[in-house]
Write a structure and sequence with these properties.
Keywords: Coiled coil. It comes from Microbispora corallina. This protein is of the alpha/beta class. About 40% of the residues lie in helices and about 15% in strands. It has an eight-stranded parallel β-sheet with strand order 22-19-23-18-27-28-17-29. A seven-stranded mixed β-sheet has the order 16-30-35-34-31-33-32. Strands 2, 7, 8, 10 and 13 form a five-stranded antiparallel β-sheet that branches. α7 runs antiparallel to α8 and α29 packs across α30. The longest helix is centred in the first third of the chain and has 30 residues. The chain is elongated and about 100 Å long. The structure holds zinc ion (2 copies). One zinc ion binds next to loops.
């Protein structure tokens, strides 16, 4: 037995423990009413349910059953096996469980006896078990009016009101099995037909799950268990014997290996996408003609992708610089992996090759937005990194020796530190390779561009109310440590220190062997240092785009800096200001500045903008961002003559074409095109190994919070038994006891995931009182958590304490952790209510089971319609998740958003277009700006046209365009009104508006529409 198998068995055992606790299987006596304890397998009396409204009835149902499609037309004869227990309150404080009741009821339907069935035998059986007065019946309803034979078979608790008290009148541990009825599967009509997916379900559970056993019997289940299987990325034609995708080989001589990959993809497609093959599937899988058409269209998309890869290969063959950059990138990736892996997965390399045509041709290819789409956990980040490092080398080799190569944005407020570390590792490796290979230009470095809650915008000379950072505070630098290991040597002996001499907050490594040799590590975490040094790759939050309207030093994100300070270590300079008289951003610097010529400046502009988690750019955030994307593009295009290329990643393909069109005004392309069936493509296929077990839970009669707390309790108690009676547990689970320690390590921490911060906080609070497990160390990972708390928690999760009792046992988390948190030790999750979007469900649950089999409880808020719907088709929902992803609502023509973004266009144009043209330079006050406007004769209408263009609003969009004209007219009127009293240009907006500080400043919850 190997570890994966041990884990799989442990997950099965653990789930059994939780379900048994939910039903009360192993309990014989209780001190409290069982109706307030058990959440599975119970059945309320119908009279109680009848008094409740529909929603409440669902919360404590009085019936369970199945909806089936009999194979033959009626009449039908079959048997129903029923099992149950009851609880009796024998004295004031004690409840006792009765013996189990088992009854088999014969059903002839329709017949002279219309039913219900079995009432008498069931009542007798309960009486014999010592629970006189309880009764239940089997009800059968013919619903063949739906078009085909269809029966609903239910067990209903018919116990009357008077006989026993509440709690005693519920049935528990209820089982129901249909024997001897041949059925046909249902086809899930709510999903579109697709040749890729199987839409069949054997039966539909009513208030429960249903499973079909090998003998065809249908049996209800208390939870719905759906297993996702672990994918593999190399097999058959892509196995290592057939395809050498090692970094080392590609670093030496890339062309033949890339050619092999392209050839293998083509050969595979000639088999799986051939017309013969599709026709064969059409006949054997019973496709409709439309499905064959759909499959043929998909086959031509595949053909197009093969052609792209061929063009990528050709680019590599023809362009010497590209080939060298590609080889250096591979050498760097080998170095960055620190021996953890030594090769690409085929899809990762495929994606990089698919972008190569853009490098050599700034025509059509350049303008496509390329989206990488791959299941989470597939290695998307490394793919990104390969591309970035390649771009960095290519820039250097073709003469762009300084400036930002790529600006990579994440849509959340906080950026995952793990992600940052991986970026730093790759770029530091690239820097070492650059030194070895004597590639000219600035050192390759990373900028961490996030925002004041994590890292400083600026380190002031003296603390102020506005910026309380104190350079004399010795503990200050440590608060802003972003890296936990040295990206050069992997040592954990990394620290931060403020250097007064050139005013930098440095990351340093203490390891004497480190290639850094005591010099700063190649990462900048303070905004101002990012402006000063323009690191090769900048990663950060999307919100930072708002600075383009506020900060003249953002120039390096669309163009180049004004000059270079002659004092070593001061870096690039920007517009002159009172506080920075020469344009140098180091306080009090008076050193002369070496001007950078206009033509050299253009070369600094970024080649790429990257957008991670594209699907999160929706609603108002998407609307605002679409204007900022246009603004960035238009500034760069105006100053350099070109726009950057945009690369994105997304969790879903639903509607990405429209989304890309709205956000970037470009056409979109996706890689890879999905394979011909859901379980297999050239790039990956399912194995028989468990990836994640999803368990849908319908809390009956108790609150979701109670079930969550009980689940944590059972999970923690059960896992802890590995400490005290490991041998026993392993025996029960069928596991070799030698794995006990590893299992304790891998399953000792559970995650409780809430959809809102409020849910998460409530869960955390109740854990203190409702989970009788001690010690229980709980940490919270939400957007509310402080930066250093998150860093500490992640580092504890990755490197757990020696003793189990010192470790983190439970993590309560919100969507903040659904991106980029990658900890192998997180393998159990409880999700409190189905997340609002399917994309979030997919991403959040993908945080567990990344390397080892995971277990996910989805506790449904069953009173909500959406949760009830998801429960009813939980299997397809989990297996075909991407098909359930809702189209992303996004628009660029919201006038409400435009009102907020127009000031940004005005201000950005003042900083980057007008100020550089102004003979006296500075346009920082209303007086200076008025003088400039009057001198140059720039008119309000003309400027309105420019602003509209910068925001991507065309004249044909009459209403929106008119709004901009109006806003500009008012702005110009105030500018000319010397009595208006504004001192700074950003005070000239209506209603005290300012350019947005964050892209989320839109008042929350107001819907955004195409008005
Ligand atoms: Zn080091
Ligand atoms: Zn200086």
């Amino acid at each position: 037995m190997d570890l994966p198998e041990a884990c799989e068995r442990f997950v099965a055992w653990l789930d059994n423990e939780v379900v048994a606790a939910g039903r009360g299987d192993n309990v014989m006596t209780l001190d409290a009413n069982p109706a307030s304890i058990f959440w599975l397998g119970r059945l309320a009396p119908e009279v109680d349910a009848a008094n409740a409204v529909r929603r409440e009835r669902r919360l404590d149902p009085c019936a369970v059953g199945v909806r089936v499609r009999p194979k033959e037309e009626g009449s039908w004869s079959f048997h129903v096996r029923i099992g149950a227990v009851a609880w009796s309150k024998l004295d004031a404080e004690k409840w006792h469980k009765t013996n189990p009741v088992e009854v088999v009821v014969r059903v002839d339907f329709p017949s002279s006896d219309p039913g219900p069935f079995g009432e008498t035998v069931i009542a007798e059986a309960f009486e014999q078990a010592g629970a006189a007065g309880l009764s239940a019946q089997v009800r059968v309803t013919d619903e063949s009016w739906r078009g085909a034979p269809e029966l609903v078979i239910e067990l209903v608790n018919t116990t009357p009101e008077s006989v026993r008290q509440r709690g005693e009148r519920h049935l528990y541990e209820v089982e129901l099995e249909i024997l001897g009825l041949e059925t046909k599967p249902f086809v899930l009509e709510s999903l579109p037909d697709s040749f890729r997916y199987d839409r069949r379900m054997p039966a539909i559970g009513i208030n429960c799950g249903v499973s079909q056993r090998a003998n065809g019997h249908l049996r209800i289940t208390d939870t719905i268990v759906v297993d996702r299987l672990r994918p593999e990325y190399t097999f058959d034609g892509t196995s290592p014997e057939n395809l050498d995708l090692k970094f080392a080989s590609l670093g030496t001589d890339p062309v033949p290996h890339v050619a092999d990959l392209v050839r293998a993809y083509q050969a595979w497609g000639e088999l799986h996408w051939s017309d013969d093959h599709l026709e064969h599937r059409y006949r054997s899988e019973g496709w409709k003609p439309e499905m064959l058409e759909q499959a043929r269209r998909a086959a031509s998309e595949y053909q197009e992708e093969v052609r792209r890869l061929h063009r990528g290969l050709q680019a590599l063959e023809k362009d010497v610089q590209l080939r060298r950059a590609f080889a250096l990138m591979n050498t760097a990736m080998a170095r960055a992996s620190h021996g953890r892996y030594d090769r690409w997965r085929p899809f990762q390399l495929g994606f990089v090759v698919s972008i190569l045509p853009s490098f050599v041709d700034d025509g059509l290819d350049w303008h496509f937005v390329e989206t990488v789409w791959f299941a989470t956990g597939g290695g998307k980040t490394e793919t990104y990194l390969g591309l970035l490092v390649l771009a960095a080398f290519y820039d250097r080799l073709r003469g762009k020796l300084a400036g930002i190569t790529a600006w990579s944005r994440f849509p959340l407020r906080m950026l995952s530190l793990q992600q940052t570390q991986r970026f730093a590792d790759a770029l530091a490796a690239a820097e070492l390779v650059r030194r070895d290979a004597k590639v000219p230009g600035d050192p390759i470095a990373l900028g961490y561009f996030v925002g004041a809650r994590s890292t400083p915008n600026d380190i002031p000379k003296e603390p102020t109310d506005f910026n309380p950072i104190d350079v004399d505070d010795d503990s200050m630098p440590a608060r802003y440590q972003v890296l936990t290991t040295c990206p050069f040597c992997g040592s954990e002996d990394v620290y931060t220190k403020f250097h007064r001499g050139n005013w930098t907050l440095r990351h340093l490594c203490r390891n004497e062997e480190c290639p850094s040799q005591g010099q700063p590590l190649p990462i900048y975490v303070v905004d101002k240092e990012i402006y000063r040094f323009l690191p090769t790759v900048v990663i950060g939050t999307l919100d930072k785009a708002s600075l383009i309207a506020m900060q003249a030093s953002m120039r390096g994100f669309v163009h180049g800096p004004a000059g270079l300070c002659t004092r070593p270590g001061h870096g690039y300079t920007y517009a002159k200001r009172g506080s920075q008289p020469t344009g140098c951003l180091v306080p009090d610097c008076q050193a002369p500045v070496e001007t950078i010529s206009e033509s050299d400046r253009a070369r600094f502009a970024p080649s790429f903008r990257l957008q991670d988690e594209l699907h999160l750019l929706r609603d108002s955030l998407g609307a605002v961002d679409s204007h900022y994307e246009s603004l960035l593009d238009s500034l760069q295009e105006q100053m350099t003559g070109a726009r950057p290329k945009i690369i994105a990643s997304s969790a879903t393909l639903t509607g990405y074409e429209r989304q890309v069109d709205v956000l970037y005004e470009r056409e979109g392309r996706v890689f890879p095109v999905p394979g011909p069936s859901a379980g297999e493509s050239f790039w990956s296929r399912e194995t028989d190994k468990l990836l994640r077990r999803y368990v849908a839970v319908w809390p009956r009669g108790v609150t979701l919070e109670w079930v969550s707390d009980r689940t944590t309790t059972i999970v923690q108690q059960s896992v802890r038994r590995l400490l005290t009676e490991g041998h026993h547990v392993c025996q029960a689970a069928g596991i070799d006891p030698k794995f006990a320690d590893q299992l304790l390590n891998l399953y000792g921490t559970n995650v409780v995931y809430g959809n809102t911060v409020r849910d998460v906080e409530a869960a955390r609070r109740s854990m203190g009182t409702q989970v009788p497990v001690s010690p229980l160390n709980v940490v919270s990972l939400t957007g509310q958590a402080e930066f250093d708390e998150v860093r500490e928690a992640l580092s504890r999760l990755q490197r757990p304490e020696e003793k189990f009792e010192d470790r983190i046992h439970t993590v309560t988390a919100s969507s903040m952790m659904s991106h980029g948190v990658d900890v192998d030790r997180l393998n159990i999750m409880t999700v409190l209510g189905v997340p609002l979007t399917t994309a979030e469900f997919i991403q959040a649950t993908a945080r567990v089971g990344r390397t080892h089999p995971g277990l996910v409880y989805v506790i449904h808020k069953i009173g909500r319609e959406r949760d009830a719907t998801v429960f009813s088709h939980f299997g397809p929902f989990v297996r075909q998740g991407d098909r359930f992803v809702e189209p992303i609502p996004v628009t660029r023509s919201s006038r409400r958003v435009l009102e907020l973004t127009t000031p940004a266009a005005i201000e950005a144009r003042r900083l980057f277009v007008h100020e550089p043209k102004s003979p006296g330079q500075r346009l920082t006050t209303v007086d200076l700006l008025r003088k400039y406007i009057n001198m140059t004769g720039v008119g309000s209408e003309e400027e309105a046209g420019e602003c509209a263009a910068a925001l991507g609003i065309s004249v044909s969009n009459h209403l929106a365009f008119k709004d901009i004209v109006k806003q500009l007219a008012a702005y110009f009127a105030r500018l000319q009104d010397t009595g208006f009293g504004a001192r700074f240009p950003n005070e000239l907006f209506e209603r005290d508006r300012r350019p947005m500080l964050s892209l989320r400043d839109v008042e929350a919850q107001v819907p955004v529409s195409d008005d």
